[in-house]
Amino acid sequence: MEDKHLTWNVNLQPGDSLLVTLCSNATTGFQWSESAQIKDQNILQQIGYTFIPPEKRIPGAAGKEEWTLNTVKKGASVVVWEYSRPWAGGEKGEWSLTATVIVE
User: Fold this and answer.
1) Residue 11 neighbours by CB distance under 10 Å
2) Which residues contact 47 (CB under 8 A, 6 or more apart)?
3) Radius of gyration (C-alpha) of the chain in whole angstroms
4) Eight-class DSSP state of 27
């Protein structure tokens, strides 16, 4: 069985940017949260979000979602992305990516 809840450790320096790209398929009703859940925004801030549609326009084709984060100062912060169905009663956190970002 594949792991639906991934963890990732990232080491960066102050002033660095981090681009995170995750596969997304809106035809399933699931989507990643547009805003990354950043535990300490004094260390890391989201400066961008983009949805990239599928390259081939066929029903059920997956696109991508991208987040750009900038480091602000030294320290560590956890960032979480969750793939959910956003409506009331929809499945929450079906997939997740949790990144521990260390700025040194």
Assistant:
1) 11
2) 17, 68, 69, 70
3) 15
4) G
- Measured distance CA(7)–CA(103) in Å, rounded: 17
Task: Quote the number of domains for the chain.
Answer: 1
Tell how many helices (H) and how many strands (E) occur in the chain: 0, 8
Q: Which two tokens stand for residue 90?
A: 């929809």
Both tokens of 63, joined, read: 């696109």
- Higher-pLDDT residue of 93 and 14 is 14
- How crowded is residue 46: how many other Cβ atoms within 10 Å of its Cβ? 18
Q: What is the DSSP letter of 73?
A: S
Range(s) of the domain holding residue 47: 5-103
- If pLDDT is split at 50, 70 and 90, which confidence band does 59 have? confident
pTM (2 decimals)? Answer: 0.88
Positive or negative: CA dihedral 9, 50, 39, 18: positive
